[in-house]
Specification:
This protein is mostly helical. About 65% of the residues lie in helices and about 5% in strands.
Length: about 475
């Protein structure tokens, strides 16, 4: 677990960088202690200490009963300190903008297909500004519209990912710096709106991909030019990439619960057989008995095990009535919908991500995967997903895919009514199709097979929510598809 001092330094360094790079311009409101707590997953004590340090160093000023205000006047992009701050993150910035070319086009294409743009708070203003010719000082309308689009979709993953990208992008610097290459792209705003509001997903996807590639190239050229212009800036060889903990932190006992559910539903712990003793499980997970027993109590309450005094706990198929009762719990119901949204998210990004990872597979690695997926207790899609993650060359993509896939991994086992044999056969069909495509060096078919699994899983789970759990609201979540981008 991260130490208190480490948390403080991480948050302080990040906020200081956001002020220096112009994400919090002078005169703008700073984050309150509550906002800091929610955004960085920290306690009030750490939030207050970070705010106090920034105030002492002259970056913000406090106001009675109001959020602090940024007062640092050095956030002009042309200043030496701002340039050095951005250059110190050059490696992660290049990876971030390259990752955006993979993630953003399918998400924007999907959410824009079913959105009434006139309901977005800033759409009319942006459209009017674009017609009159977009000026550099109006650039903030563009990310604002994108954020409003993702918020309107109802999927929290879209909003979380875009907000994280925007936080680390240093976009104010690149759009307000002298001779910025990105400023020239503001002239495309009217075309951007025209494409986004059209009903041609393939055309939309291609245009957005090309636009993001031009953006990534402009950032690369700007950083290269600044390195030559400011040779005195101290540039560290390596830098921490702050993408850990993408989603909310999960308590240890919940992590154990998730792992046990996965093992029971996939057959690693066979039905009607005893689980290992609590002492052995506690030793395996490296936790205290009280933590392990808390997970076991939750597992028992969800209907996955029945316990006998002294003898231990037996794995069992969860009765449908127990499943229905479980989702009546507000926390489990929230998890059920979060799982559906995660599947929707993965169905859209897994294809482009798999396409990106495809060149990293070798004949030897494919043979290893084929062997692993056939092993008792193996989860075929997990084996393939782990291999995809290892072959990704961009850290943001790796973290996004790994953390979201891990969330979906246990949830699929928890909310699917298929038995272990059915689940494995279903997964093997898609995994084998993906592996065959890789053997044929067909990256497009490989991407479609991976995306197809998550899209199929979404449709299946959505139907089960309605049929088994009587959750009618599941019908309102739009079914995702990656193939219409081909």
């Amino acid at each position: 677990m991260e130490e208190s001092e480490g948390r403080f330094n991480r948050v302080y360094t990040d906020l200081k960088g956001r002020i220096i790079s112009g994400q919090f311009p002078a005169g703008s409101s700073f984050l309150s202690a509550e906002q800091l707590r929610q955004e960085y997953q920290i306690g009030f004590h750490t939030a207050r200490n970070v705010t106090a340090r920034l105030r002492e160093e002259g970056y913000i000023v406090s106001r009675n009963r109001k959020a602090p205000v940024v007062c640092w006047e050095g956030s002009v992009p042309s200043t030496h300190s701002a340039v050095c701050e951005v250059l110190s993150h050059r490696g992660s910035l290049l990876e971030l903008y390259e990752s955006l070319t993979v993630i953003l086009p399918p998400l924007l294409t999907f959410v824009s297909q079913s959105c009434d743009f006139w309901l977005l708070p800033h759409y009319a203003q942006l459209k009017k500004t674009a017609i009159r010719k977009m000026r550099p000082q109006n650039w903030r309308l563009l990310p604002l519209i994108c954020q409003e689009l993702f918020d309107a979709s109802g999927n929290p993953f879209f909003s979380e990912i875009y907000a994280r990208f925007h936080r680390y992008s240093h976009l104010p610097f690149f759009l307000e710096a002298e001779d910025s290459y990105l400023c020239e792209m503001l002239e495309d705003t009217e075309e951007f709106l025209s494409v986004l509001t059209s009903n041609h997903p393939k055309k939309k996807y291609d245009w957005l991909t090309a636009s993001q590639q031009r953006t990534a190239l402009a950032v690369h050229d700007t950083l290269y030019r600044l390195e030559k212009k400011y040779p005195s800036c101290h540039l560290p060889e390596e830098e921490p990439f702050q993408w850990t903990g993408l989603y909310e932190r999960t308590p240890v006992y919940v992590q154990i619960l998730q792992d046990l559910i996965t093992k029971i539903t996939t057959g690693a712990y066979p039905l009607e057989q005893y689980l290992p003793h609590e002492e052995d499980l506690a030793r395996e997970y490296g936790v205290a008995l009280t933590t392990l027993r808390k997970a076991m109590a939750e597992l028992r309450g969800m209907g996955y095990i029945r316990t006998y005094n002294v003898k231990g706990s037996i794995a069992q198929k969860r009765p449908v009535e127990a499943a229905r009762h479980t989702v009546q719990n507000p926390v489990h119901r929230q998890n059920a919908f979060r799982f559906l949204y995660a599947l929707q998210f993965l169905a859209l990004i897994a294809g482009p991500i798999a396409h990106r990872a495809a060149p990293g597979f070798t004949t030897k690695s494919l043979e290893e995967i084929e062997f692993q997926v056939q092993q008792p207790g193996a989860v075929p899609i997990t084996v393939l997903a782990d291999a995809i993650s290892r072959n990704l060359d961009l850290e943001p993509l790796r973290v996004i895919f790994r953390e979201t896939e891990h969330l979906v991994r246990w949830s699929y086992c928890a909310f699917s009514e298929r038995n272990a044999g059915q689940q494995k056969r279903h997964m093997l069909t898609h995994v084998q199709s993906a592996l065959n495509a890789l053997k044929a060096s067909d990256k497009d078919s490989f991407a479609n097979a991976v995306a197809g699994y998550y899209s199929n899983a979404f449709s299946q789970i959505c139907a089960q929510y309605v049929q088994y759990y009587k959750i009618k609201d599941a019908k309102s979540i739009v079914s995702p598809s990656y193939e219409w981008l081909q």
